[in-house]
Amino acid sequence: MLIDTVAWVRIEGGRILCARPRGKEVFYIPGGKREGAETDRETLLREVGEELAVALDPESVAHVGTYEAGAPDLPEGTVVRMSCYTGDYRGTLTPSAEIDEMAWFSYADRPLVPPVDQLLFDDLKAAGSLS
Question: InterPro entries, per this entry (predicted)?
C-alpha cells in the first residue's frame, strides 16, 4: 500500500518547520494527502492553509525532492511517499484546530519525526541547510 503525501519545506535560521497534529505524539513536515484529483501544488496550498493558516504563493512553489520509507505504526509493506516543496507564504504561521503544536527543528531533533521525514532531514543536513 502506498500513502502519497506532499510536504512544505520551510527552513529559517537552519531550522525546519514541523507540526504535531492534534492527538498525535509525532511531529511531521507540514502537508498531507491529496483529495480526489488534486495536483501536488493544489494539495500543498490547501493543506498548508488548513494546518498553519497561511497562504502559499503558487508561483513560488518548487519541488525539492521526493522520499519513500516505511512507517513503524503502519501495516507491514506500507510505504509513505512524501513529495517535498518549498514556497513563499503570506500571513502569520498559526497552528489550526487540527494542529496542537508547531516547532522549528534542527538536525538534532531528527528522531522526533517519522522515517520518511528523517530522509529529508539527512539531505538537508548534507546540503548545509539544516543546523
Answer: NUDIX_hydrolase-like_dom_sf, NUDIX_hydrolase_dom
